[in-house]
Design a protein that fits this description.
This protein is α/β, with parallel strands linked by helices. It has one domain: Rossmann fold (3-Layer(aba) Sandwich), CATH 3.40.50. The chain has ten helices and eight strands. The protein has an eight-stranded mixed sheet, sandwiched between helices. The protein is globular.
Amino acid sequence: MAPTVEGAGVELAYEERGEGPSVLLVHGLAASGADWAPVVERLAGSARVISYDRRGYGASGAPDPYQRTTVHEQAEDAAALVDALSAAPTVACGADLGALVVLDLLRRHPGLVTGAVLVDPPAFMLVAGATEALAAERFALEEALREGGPRRGVELYLGWQRAAAERVARARERPATFFADYGGLATLPLSRRELRTLNAPVVILDSPAARSHQRAAGDALVALLPAGRRGGVTSVTSAIEELIAR
């Protein structure tokens, strides 16, 4: 059974492996800490790697009923985990919603995160052309809900992500958590002025499944973050190792 710590009002299940500089891994929508297994395996020989199930996923708790979350709430969970494990300062890596969580940690807990890797950061508020793509996405999800219920909506989203069958099977068991996350994507108030003050090094990566509006959001962040850069074909593990070595 995975160990747990108290997050911002819920129990968070986590895994910790290795010794050395601290690395925090924050998973995205319809995922879990288990999805970081290849990254953990690669880094555990040279770093203290912490992965966890965000609220509502895996072995972690959630309010009942669990219908909505915010990036702020998720970031407070992450900060509580790092504090409980005495893991600060840490390099943090987040995927999609998890990337927004890491950005919020940079904004509001500047001493906690020394560098960040963001995979497909959904900073769509910075991309004027994203509105049409997001509206089409929401319409498709609504259609899936009407035709096949919440699980069909999760399957559709993960089809866009080209997710592995194992991840799809896990996510289908927690559709309410996925939709709580999906509603939380638009809850982070990012201003261009504030982003220009975040001086920590940030590497932004596109997943193989990233669509044009997702890539545009990454480009917008790189243009605003003083120490932000594109990772090109760099892998997640390589990007994290680069930040650890700084």
